[in-house]
Amino acid sequence: MSDVKYTKEHEWLRIEGDVGTCGITDYAQDQLGDVVFVEVPDKGVSVEQNGEIAVVESVKAASEIYAPVAGEVVEGNPALADTPDLVNSDPEGAGWFFKIRISDASQLDGLMDEAAYKEYVESLG
Amino acid sequence: MVSESDALGRTPLYDLHVALGGKMVPFAGYDMPVQYPAGILTEHKHTRAAAGLFDVSHMGQVTLRGDDPAAALESLVPGDILGLEDMQMRYTQFTNDAGGILDDLMVTRRGDDLFLVVNAGCKKDDIAHMRSALAGRCEIETHDDRALVALQGPEAAAVLSRLAGESVTTMAFMSAADVTIDGIPCFVTRSGYTGEDGYEISCPGEAAEGLARRLLAEEEVEPIGLGARDSLRLEAGLCLYGHDIDTTTTPIEAALLWSIGKRRREEGGFPGDAVIQAQIRDGAPRRRVGIQPEGRAPAREHTAVHSPGGAAIGEGTSGGFGPCVGRPVAMGYVETAHAKAGTALELMVRGKALPAEVVKMPFQPQRYYRG
Predict the structure, then answer these.
(1) Distance (Å, whole) CA B90 – CA B108
(2) Residue B313 and residue B144: Cα distance in Å, rounded?
(3) How would you classify the pairing of strands B221-223 and B51-55?
(4) Are B141 and B131 in contact (CB under 8 A)?
(5) Which DSSP letter does residue B328 get?
(6) Containing H/E element for B152?
(7) B227/A37 Cβ within 8 A
(8) What residue in B sits closest to A33 (Cα-Cα)?
(9) Testing the interface with B: which of A29, A30, A34, A86 to mutate, by most B Cβ within 10 A?
(10) B77-132: per-residue pLDDT in tens?
(11) Residue B341: which of B353, B324, B357 has the closest Cα?
């Protein structure tokens, strides 16, 4: 049983035990347009909550990805180097960015659940 | 959502863009489609594979009339305007006294008049500049009531000939003709901003939506937004004003010497001629070049360019992913010593030095109609 949380920056975090898998939401990929490059973090990188951790570039612009929670990167998605368009075709599946070992589970309480995120996106019009 | 877009100008095709699902963004004071639902990559590739229709009605269309409008305009641009044959078109630039570029433009001789197309973001200043500098020599008429669309791509000629007759298929590249398209009187040039064969079509504003819908009804034609217009012109190695050229870059630094005719190089007689002639003679300190990043990371505008492991030698002015090249492409200025094709460079992207190389442009072969 996994639990998915969301941020206002349109990232999703699927939590399994003390590891979270992070990517960007379908709304985010639609806003970005065709993704042509993703830079994912290396294994072992430590990051603070809201620290810059990855970069996604679409045909329009470059955007920073911020860590939803503090922790240590377990794995970056190696598939995105050659097939960055997975972010468009399967943003909440094969287009994941990185896995992170969550250092402070209490930070999860500040994130949105699916219903709250849906409401948030609707409020953006 | 109420936005500042209420204050933006709208082209005669605004309603059509919205009806087609265009994502509207502010651009040079106009509310313009950056893309349609197909998206930038698909629109870009479609233009190179078949035909794309672009709304460029935001650009300025201007007629110059007078005793000798060509001689008058030559006092403001380095291009050979006197040498234009009737219905022939040429690319040139308005220069300033330092040899910098105020705008780039297309000039067509049309009988006794000249027909100009200038950039949307510069048109107000260009018109004021001409009204002031050419006072007493030229009457300057702006055509805010007209629309301008571009039909670009390898199928453009086949499509247009279906609606306008065979004669459009043999129009020379950079020539003009008065053409009736589906009953609408149009002024057509064989030109564009994509590196592909194609046409730019000026028509009365009130006829524009009908014309655009008629062209879009042809199966080869899809609507193309500003996003793909930018990536197409970048692959074609063409300058975007305000990015790759501006008041601080001369035509020589910008690698636009080809646009200055032999007579003008010798005689001068345009703003900044002393600077530009000296650069033609002695070389320019820097030069606009094509830049091919080695990896997949795009190098955007303002990316610092270094020699490998060394000093800063320039700056990127345009950059992004080249959909038909299949990898990132860029252009920018480097010191002349580093401007030769094959020279190794480093691009500073997010604090990392990424290897790159100076390459010849265009990135995609030009496919203009050459008869």
Answers:
(1) 6
(2) 43
(3) parallel
(4) no
(5) E
(6) strand B146-152
(7) no
(8) B39
(9) A34
(10) 999 999 999 999 999 999 999 999 999 999 999 999 999 999 999 999 999 999 99
(11) B357
